[in-house]
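Homework-ish question, so no full write-ups if that breaks the rules, but can someone show me the predicted structure for this set?
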Amino acid sequence: MAVELSAFERSPRFSRWLDRRIPPTRRITLSQQSIFIFPTLTGFLFGGLIVLLILGAINYQNSLVYGVAFMLGSLFLVTILYTFRNLSGLTIELVGAGVGYVGEDVEFQVRVSRPKGKGREGVQLGWLGAITQWAELYDSEACTVRLFVRAERRGWLDPGRLLIETQYPLGLLRAWTWVDLGARALVYPQPIFLDHPEHIARRGDDGELVDPQGSDDFNDMRKYRPGDPIRHVMWRVYARSDELVVKEYTSYLDPRLMLDYDRVSGGVEERLSRLTGMTLSAARSGREFGLILPGVRIGPSIGDSHRDSILRALALHGIPQA
Amino acid sequence: MAFLRRNEPAEALGVGYQIPRNSLALLMVAQAVVVLPHAAHITLWIIGVGFVCGCWRWMVFQGRWDYPQRWVKALLVVASVIGVGVSGKNVFSLETATGLLIVAFALKLVEMKSRRDAYIVIHLCYFIIAAEFLFDQSIGAALYGVLAMIIVTAAFVGLHQLHTRVRVATSLRTAAVLVSQAVPLMLVLFLFFPRVAPLWSVPLPGGARTGISDHIAPGDIAALTRSDDIAFRAVFDGAIPAMRDLYWRGLVYSNFAQGTWFVGGLPTTADNMPVQAGGLASFLPKRVGTPIDYQVLLEPTQESWLFALDVAAPVGRGTALTRDFRLIADGPVHSVMHYRAQAFAGAATDVELPEWLRRRETQLPPGDNPRIVAFAKDLAARSSDQQTYLDNVLKYIRTEPFYYTLNPPTLDDAHSVDSFWFDSRRGFCSHFAGAFVYLARAVGIPARMIGGYQGGEVNPLTGHLVVRQYDAHAWTEVWLPGRGWVRIDPTAAVAPARIESGLNAALSETDRAVLSSVTAGHFEGVPGLRDVFYLFESMQHRWNMWVVGYDTEIQARYLADLLGEVTPTRVGLAMLLGGGLSLALVVLSLFWRRRPEPDHPAQRIFRRFADRLVRSGLVRRPDETPARFLHRVNKARNRPTTDVAELVDQLDALLYNPDVECSQQALRSLRSGLRRLQLDVALRARA
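A: Not a homework solution, just the prediction itself:
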């Protein structure tokens, strides 16, 4: 079930009140301070049944029908305590936030633990707009729930308040709370992979690798193929033999790839996406590479942490640091 | 109400929702359990429909069949509704309504897909449990209701128990705990919730009619004696009168036709108009002597007549007196009825007999039973006055070979009284009473047959009187000048033991064998069994008195005893107090935590060490073992040392090695090692 706000909870006043009542914290133990409780639709249906039974008992003057009605009424009151207790005393703690790319689901790890004693059942957690997950707290005293949020934009992803709710034992009441665990996750741009990433790689003057489509040194001649640069056509040969022949040039490439923002085409996001794709390909190929963004230069290096710092720079490009 | 949240699970995702296995199983059991007691008053094919639907639903769960098509369901619904309408005697009766409810309930089985469907079925289950109590309010029915409620609640809980190891037993246990925790609060509500009069009239259950009916043919009452069903229970405020005085008057039979005595047949209904208890008319008996106060808990009869001692004076609401001094209720008695009455022994009634009444109480069908009429005239001629004549009749019964028996021979249809009086001479109370009235009327003495119960059995545990169907009896009332109506029981002339000590004593051995009933008399000489019988009977009585019969009147009396004065404030406060206490019990059981077990001393030392380090900025992560944490702390030191491994060994040994003794010395050494480490880190943090 996707978490949605009720009309009441959508008002800004409620959100301000909530901020005062349950201030943001990385770890919170739920108490009557933070738990709300209200009957569900089923609860109202149940109430209707009780009223119906009491009416029947009055009209039929039947003591045992009164008994059933009162039994159900008492059950309702007792389940208020059960539902409340099911959340009360739970400790919610953010233990990890994953990373992801735009368009993916980003993982958060929330640890829910309960005090010793009776197990809790049917506890659900979920960020607003995301699918809820069950917390398994019946046999174990703690569990880590993995919650996913769809990343819509690069940069810091703030999933907002986390809903913790339960309808145990009879679904007549819903106890819930919204906690702000201060969770945020880094979202990298959506990678765009190019067929020939080297096209836009910044070239050096010396090196070992040869770029077959480079234009620095003459290497060979061959027949024209559509798409060859027109300035490589050997017009003299054409004049002589009516044959289109092109000169082949090659370049020496610097193996240390520098991914340059200025040399990538497209808008800001598109460029960042391409650079992300190139970063990933480069990291996978195992060669040294670096990044040049306006105002930022991350020197060529290798390794996962180097890749991550480049991705982080791409993710946070142009985003003011909070 | 957008604020409300619907508890709809996976459908929103487009995933096929399956009601959890244990909950589905419990739901189906619950449906069967809930419907079972209704089998007595709904047509049996409904049970069949339920069974088929249940099997279908199980096959769906197994994945072998699919839910029925829409048109199949529509067809089923239409067929069932028509079926219920056709098989019910009365379309608007309670039985038909229940039948319809249960059919709908059975059909819902094959449609039970979503969680909301399950909710609806559960609510219907609760409703059907309550509906059964309209037909039966015994202890057994109540216990069964509690059991059914636990099963239904278990299905309800099962819908929300989503941990992986959930089983039917787990749900049942949770439900049983829930129900038992709700009981104290329920009792408080039961006691204090104000009982009010019905708001509108409703159809009431028909039920089987047992007991005395409004006409008596010879042998009718003898048939009743084969039943040990309880007719009513009576509680006397004072001492219980002697057995021979316990004549529970219920019906007055004044009309005779074709061998059968009938009630009523009065010229105008106005003569039989009930006289309200408040406005006693002039013909009512004078209240003489000290009244006998008693209350009666009458089992349902589906009729409005009540049973009362002698000439009754009704006390309280809901009862009234008729022109022939019978006590009647406002309407048919469909569930156990509680009423109070007073009896005035020896009160004279109708000292002045109106002429129309005299005519009515002396009429006989002309030409019927000529032999006994001739016999009466002959006997009257030989008697000086009416009293002597009646005495002579009784003497005749006593001296001639008349027999009191449960199995009288069949009588001649045309002249049944003649046939009994002269030929068979074997009869039960109604034979003797009928013949006696006939003899009286034949010579112009106003007389009528009275039907009711005679005697009863005292339960020694509670001191209440139990009157059973086999105590049914018929006797007569004869009008004598200056004395009014006088009770004469001709059975006393033929079988005095019947009146003195009950039916069993009056019967011959063979007749007693015919009686299949279980009476306390049968346990004569088996003291243990007899006590159990009395205990069971007294439980039933208390149940009727305090639970089933708990109405406005008893509640008012009980609350007055409890609270001193019944004001809305006091009742409200008592309800709040009682309810609060019962909920407090639940709170206590839910939130009470046992003191945690004392930690291992080494554990405690380590925890204190970890707590101190927080100040230096080193927080132990929840997933960090002591060893890893110690190594991390060691790294935070100015000059990490290797002796931290020793410290880890020490700690591990103390915590986990059962062979290592947890001595004071070892603990001290661990403490000092940790202390040194912590001081090092603290110094560095400060620097």
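Now go work out the reasoning yourself. Hint: Chain A has three domains: 12-188, 189-202+257-322, 208-253.
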